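Bench log, entry 3. Co-assembly request; chain sequences pasted below exactly as received.
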Amino acid sequence: MQVTKTTTLGETVALNEPLAPASSQQHGKVQVSHGTGRRWPLSRWLTLLTFAVLLALPVLLAVLDNSFLLTLVSRCMIYGIAAISLNLILGYGGMLSLGHAAFFGIGAYVVGITAQNFMYGTALMEWPFELAASNDAIVVWPVAILLSALAALLIGAISLRTSGVYFLMLTLAFAQMIYFIFVSLDQYGGDDGMNLMSRNTLLGLDLDNDLTFYYVCFGCLLLIYLLVQRLIAARFGMVLRGCKQNEQRMQAMGFPTYRYRLMAFALAGAGAGLAGALIGNQMEYVSPNLLHWKMSGELMVMVLLGGLGTLLGPLWGAFAFLLVEDVLSGITEHWMLFFGPFLILVVLFAKGGIYGYLIRKEQP
Amino acid sequence: MPKQSYVSNPSRFSAVSQRLLPGLCGAALVLAGSSLLSTAVAAEPVKLGMITTLSTKGGYLGEDMRDGFKLAVEQGKGSLGGIPVELLVDDDAGDPQKGKQIAERMIKSDKIDMMTGIMFSNVAMAVVPSVLKDGLFFVGANAAPAPFAGKMCNPNYFNVAYQNDNMHEAMGEYLTQQGYKSVFLIAPNYPAGKDALTGFKRFYKGEVKQEVYTKLDQSDYAALISQIRADKPDAVFYFLPGGLGVNFLKQYDQAGMKSEVKIFGPGFSFDRRLLGAVGAAAEGVMNSSEWNDDLPAAGNAEFVQAFHTAYGRYPTLYAAQAYDAANLIGSALKQVDGKLDDKDAVRKALMAADFSSVRGSFRFNTNHHPIQDIYVRQVIKLDDGSYANKTVSKVFEQHQDAYVSECKL
Amino acid sequence: MSTTDTPWALEARGLVKRYGQLVATDHADICVAKGELHALIGPNGAGKTTLIKQLSGEIFSDQGQIRFHGADITRMPIHQRAHRGLVRSYQITSIFEEMSVIDNVALAVQALQGHSFRFWRPAASDARLREPAFRCLERVRLAHRASVLAGNLAHGEKRQLEIAMTLAAEPSMLLLDEPMAGMSPEESGQMVELLQALKGEHSILLVEHDMDAVFSLSDRLTVLVYGKPLVTGTAAEIRNDQRVREAYLGEEAA
Amino acid sequence: MILFLEQLLNGLQFGVMLFLMASGLTLVFGIMNLVNLAHGSFYMIGAFVAAAIVASSGSFVLGLLGALLATAILGIAVEMLIFRVLYKRDHLEQILATFGIILFCNEAVQVIWGKTPLFFDIPAALSGSVELLPGLNYPLFRIGVIGVGIVVAIFLYLLINRTRLGMAIRAGSSDREMIAALGVNIKLLYSLVFGLGALLAALAGVMAGPILSVESGMGESILILTFVVIVIGGIGSIKGALAGAVLVGVVDTLGRAFMPELMRMALSGGAADSMGAALSSILIYLLMAVVLIFRPRGLFNASH
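Structure output for the full assembly:
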């Protein structure tokens, strides 16, 4: 059999599914074991299909004159971003965080607070230096990402001293603290939340237009997806996955694992911050609900529903969760009576989540 | 459209299928065809969207809201004010995000003509501005946070129920009238809780011993009750909605405090469904409300009877408010003959409030919140062993809210 | 590697580790010369694994001192010891089962090459990782299995992989914890061959139950009993030592 | 001083309630390594069943027994149907599945018993209060709750330290393989322990029913606190659950009682009330964080 020359692109895409036998990661001398088989694994087809559908969907919806679905899918993509970022630590890093909503919420509140200050023309900060509020996404969103990452860095630095369920509870604890702080912040609406009178602008783009906003979300999703894909396949990702499988061994090999895990935690926080900034804009409303542990739980459920430790799984999970919830709650007010067992059935029978189940079936 | 169109489920089914079908590309033509068809039919009913809370702890509130509204539609045989209506109801689960999503669906996909309902202030804060932004009318049937009555008031926003502070103001006034020298105040640590106590203090002239804000999901109040015992106020006023109030009142009674320090609250904690859960602990407690089932207003007794016949339970305040909301909408629809395109005409018709409220006298203030009487009621035990409220006196006559001056309408 | 003129690669003096009442190692001394294959033997529960953990840095000693090529590493964390060239392999196979064989070794190579805060370039096409990793696999005769999922390897192959990963760290000294445990005689034979080849290139501290292998491979042996070194000497010396016979070989033989 | 004592008693009583929940959860977690979010649902179901039986029969004792029996049977049934499969899965999948159970149970009680909170009153024999010290009146029922907690603690102590089942439980939480070696039927042991956990949760629910509002979703607020308790105490340790429960109960209660006053010394009225409320809400989370920072595996860790 001949040695197949795989392009760089080919290899990265093949790395899509780290749990798959990494048969395409050949060294020059290694023979290709599946050269005669399908060149493109199912995962790659599904990835292409997913993004193609998302890209083309607005056209179809325009024909159907259904602008609601446009906003619903925007929301699904935003939750998808949050879930993908959570999966980075949950699926690849093996860190059971039940505090991801904190970073999601912080991102949203950055948008909310700057919007409120912008609306009333007040300064964001008067001390130590005066900082005027901006309404441009190019300023506000990076701040949201940065602050979320910073919060994640702090929370992670403490929580990562423990592991397993103890880690889970510590992240939960910190998220709940932030939740209660926002509940009692009267100037930002407390439990009632705060209304944004309009969305941010993005370099002159009008995000109030749902179609524009849809494609901005799509762009962010694609960006995050690609970043995570690269990250997972890069050296950093190898270390992260190694830490999940056997942290002690990683240390024995000479990796200061704490630093890598903390970095991953902060990066995941940053991703959630972007998702938060987007959801704040999408809803034009932010409230402490975004920070509640139930939101962390829902994000976790999305990741698991789609497929833990797969690139596309969390996105599918977000879609499945939100769409099933929306459809069921439309059919009956007792929708939870069916949604609960649905989750149980997924765990019992679709091991590895919906997407994980599909791509795993393919493998020998 | 069939007569039974106000039943939420069948119509929701069609909405669901509309959302699912796009997945199947071939359905596009079918849908396009059906939408053409629907514009051709002349007597298309007016579509009303109701967002309320049907699941989670607050579920019973929304259930009463929905049923009160449905009763009015049923009495009109599927129409309000003689105009056929289709009522879509959906559950926000008390979650603002979810409420917002439903609102988007109702507006963009179901293409409703007017929105009503909303149980909780935070859901209202999330949902209402975008509804108004899309040019729809919103007729609130319960939640009425301060901004909507003041700074954020809007020509297309009406609230039939009250302004959030009203009941607390009435209790403050009543305690002043009755000569209670000092009071201990309790509310959850969230905006509605703070507004409540602010409202109370607006009319209370005595000394406020302590103002305690409890954790939002606080369920055990033993520590608080001990504090009250130590503080020895003349009276306690508490605003703890739903189950929180049940917890507090039961524990207050169990601690033997009811005979020591008299307790007062807004009517929210004393509707007949909650009284069933609290039982004897509530007996004799004074509370404030703009409606009660024994009010002599024209049509009130009939409403209570009809509600009981239809659903097998007695209506609560929420049902009465929703019933009024439905009749208000009916009066406006009748006025404009079901044509909602002329916004000014609709607004004028709503503003006129030309309907018979089960509360009695009712009119809108310039900020589209009611000017109405507010009563003090007392919890009594009925012969059948259940508990109900008896109207004791009128605290406020033609009361208006405190924010109307901030509204530039 | 080291500029100091000590003859010892590893020099541990008076190591103590207590778990509550239990004294796992009790003033243990052990010295491994540069390039030597030194075996550590003793009955079950003698504290061999604890001692290995103390030396590798997984646990810190309550008392005592450890020097590596002359430098004091007593309080040095495990990953820094690894960077200095002191690397252990594991008794219970401790590979990354969800990664391919080559990835396992590449990860170990990666540990050598500075920090891994590299987020962009795919590790799988990085020749700086792949080539050394492949060479290590060749050394342990596992190159033909490079792209197999590590979890799917046979038991003996996993042990080979384990050694390859240890080698990838380019250690000056190996701490090998029972590399032949659970192996078939055939697999053991291969492992002995492999260790024979490694001997001389690396200083090795070997913990092993397979006495034939130990006696054929090691330059010197230390017998550990109840956390204390009983005696240290060449294979012949140990074989003839009365105390060892009583404490250890007698039991084993029976 | 009297007020402080009374608040301490309140904290103790709250702690006892938490202990009833935590002891079951920590056993299930420690022995089966199962993260059971649905533990709060057993608490809720216990309260609902008891309320329903009391309402129809008028007997509190009957309600108590009925609730314990029903919940234990339900617990064992759910264990056999769903949890058995979950033991082998990782924690995340357990969380997902048990989250599903929560949703189902919360809705199911609304379908069965309606949306209004149920009426559940204190039994006549335990109503009213007693004077413990001059000036310190305390509700009899709450004293009863503390009593029940002490009885359960003693019962669990004897069960675990003096019985064969207890020996298996102890072995199970430290060394899983050892149970098999002891010749214990693991399936049966797991079902029994799970049933016991459900029963204790239901007991907590019945104790809470007359004090709290019996409503859908009542399990979640206590669930999080229960997890805080077992994590502080150390997973798998009954002793830890007891210590953690009392600690959390007392800290939470005293925080709520005195934090606003402390804040008022430093800040002005409105801000102090608001800050005090916020701080007392986060106090137990702070407590947990501090404990875990210094003892990453809790106060009493059963397994090493």
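Chain D touches chain A through 44 residues (CB under 8 Å). The first strand of chain D starts at residue 129 and ends at 133.
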